Amino acid sequence: MTALVVVSGGLREPSSTRLLADQIEAAVRAELARANSPATSSVIELRPLGRAIMDAMLSGFPSKELEAVFQQLAEADGLVAVTPAFNASFSGLFKSFFDVLPQETLSEMPVLIAATGGTERHSLVLEHALRPMFSYLHAIVSPTGVYAATTDFGSQTGVTERIHKAANDFSRLLQACGTRKRRDVFTEEVSEMTRLLASTKTGDAYGSSEPAG
Amino acid sequence: MSGMQFGIFTVGDVTTDPTTGSTPSEAERIKATVRIALKAEEVGLDVFATGEHHNPPFVPSSPTTFLGYIAARTQRLILSTSTTLITTNDPVKIAEDFCVLQHLSDGRVDVMLGRGNTGPVYPWFGQDIRAAVPLTVEHYTLLRRLWREEVVDWEGQYRTPLHGFTLAPRPLDGIAPFVWHGSIRTPEIAELAAYFGDGFFANHIFWPPSHTRRLIELYRQRFDHYGHGSADQAIVGLGGQVFMRRNSQDAVREFRPYFDHAPVYGNGPSLEEFTAQTPLTVGSPQQVIDRTLGFRDYAGHYQRQLFLIDHAGLPVKTVLEQLDLLGEEVVPMLRKEFQIGRPDHIPDAPTHESFVAGQQR
Asked: Are B277 and A194 in contact (CB < 8 Å)?
């Protein structure tokens, strides 16, 4: 069973960002079902987490509520990330969420990127903002993203086809990547120290004998 | 002194008092810290620890100079740090400074080592923050040898080699100052402390208890793994942050502007959220007692409790009043209550005398 998580950075209700996110999620699940690879999915809406995200940024630690969301994302096999385009980039809230997300949470995670905007002129936000950020976070970004402008929601502009194309690419990527092996930075850091200590030929505690083990 | 040690630790920040707009001079802050340290002994606390910083708005750049002055004016107080930067200080200088302090204070010294998380301090002292972890290990293993071996021949990656080097003065009674390793977040430090059987001090101020619990569990389990004793015999210290008035509403009302304007807390979670999510306690002495006793639920029986009480622009008069409350009400009750149900095999907090006694046995 593939665990999909959708992150939606839409601000209003109803939100065209959430609408796009839902359409992509449904399309990906349909593709996976066709390939006999069923999926579960859950949605993380960022707006209700707005204060928690900023508190984590300022205090350095997440609230319980935000920590649970981080956990949900860490356990995913794939991510669909959708943001509104603001000022030639992702929204600040969307970026802030990924700024406070613990290191390596997204490493080796397949990600489908998508964005909404007022006009189609902003569509390269996918390639100039989202793709490099997720690459930097060591995610595996699916080659096809989806950009939907306001006009896409009411005309024959081919957004449905684009969603299906993106979902098809993403589902093949998910199947190829398989169940994701999670990174545990806490344990990795301890192991690194254990290795360093083992490589030093030092004395032991209280200056008497060699450490056992 | 048996069982646990109680004391205070200071960051040494020069911060404008948000309620009056007045900012102490560096001289005033340093002298205020002297008054606070002396008062700690006067009210019966066991430990005073100072931070180390090398940039404004902080004043404690030379902790052993400061602690030497305090040593001359106290009789019982244990002098410590929170923390001494093992990365950017020369381990030879750390070894020397703390040995001199040991002799001056008749052994009333221990040291808490930390890596330091102010990026530019590393290059200012000729180091690279990206190498902080291997640098910590190399410097610390050298420091241990300097305190334990008569003649040291040493070569490493980050410091000039030493050939035929003998530390002078040697540690008092041939006993190295006890070492705590302080950590806010990083599990590597728990592993380092466990490996050597040193103390592990969890900052316990900036992060929720669930995080502290995980670090301490790791340290205890690894302490056992490396053969220093059972997990519950590992030497644990905790930070904590309190503000007290007899009436808890008065405490909240008085502390709120300091919290709201504190460089580390301001404009983030509210005082109420922060007290719910972290060990910060603002209230009556009884609330502080109850909260602090609760630390044992996730840290186990532990050896040292330090409180942060003098930051964010709080006037020295207020800080001295906090010390009165700690000394008169909080610490006597904590000593008594923490002793209840504490099994005999749990070690007391280590002191120079305890190591001397150990040598003689």
From this structure: no
